[in-house]
Amino acid sequence: MTRFFVEPEQMRPDFLVLTGENAQHAKVLRMKSGEQVLVCDGQGEECLCTISDVSPGQISLVVNKRQLSQSEAALAVSVYMAFPKSDKLEHVIQKATELGAYEIVAFPTARCVSRPDEKSLKKKLERWQKIAASAAQQSGRGRIPEVMALGSYREALERTARSDKAILFYENERATTLRMALEEGEYRSVSLLTGPEGGLEEQEVAQAMEAGLRVCTLGKRILRCETAPLCALSAVMYHGGEF
């Protein structure tokens, strides 16, 4: 079934109107009166609708049923990734959205080569959010993960630590595996933090431990910075029964 995203304030109880890009997309698909579509508010709620009228520039819909999205994970998993070089973060945003991430957060560390300034970061965030929206629509999600950037590593640690389970991955960790960390206690939210191309400094790992994060290994092999968060996210989703 074709899925459209609208702003939360556009979600009315009895009828909806698609305009702009949504109306154009419906036109490209040659949608007609009587067809059913799903309209999502991007925050986990969706409406099953029937097209009642197709006019130039707008599509009118009758709301048949309003419900929570059936495609969202029960576990809220946040992906925290240190700023990588090139367009690696774009790849992670797209794939993490498909895998069910609740949000994707970028932040700087001591070894980050990429350090976007305020002006370029604003443009990047707009692009990153569009990538997440596109991936959410393509993968049939009811929620668009928020993509954000923090100003410091300390801020990232403080925010990560608010989750029920906060995990940092470090290539020099040998004792604690992700499976061990996930089997401890009950939780509804998980934060996964990974470093940049050069990895995290020992001092940064110590800071994370002081902040309450659990330091884990992702196995015997060293993963690239764009591979590690997706590997960890997939493992958490599997452990949570999503796959």
Description:
The protein is of the alpha/beta class and about 240 residues long. The protein folds into 2 domains: about 5-70, Beta Barrel (Ribosomal Protein L25, Chain P), CATH 2.40.240.20; about 75-240, Alpha/beta knot (3-Layer(aba) Sandwich), CATH 3.40.1280.10. Helix content is about 30%, strand content about 25%. It has helices at about 20-30, 90-100, 120-140, 155-160, 180, 200-210, 230-240; strands at about 5, 15-20, 35-40, 45-55, 60-70, 75-80, 105, 145-150, 165-170, 190-195, 215. It has a 6-stranded parallel sheet with strand order 8-7-6-10-9-11, with helices on both faces. A 5-stranded mixed sheet has the order 1-3-4-5-2. Helix 2 links the parallel strand 6 and strand 7 (about 105). The longest helix has 21 residues, at about 120-140.
What's a quick, concise take on this entry?
The protein is 32% helix and 27% strand.
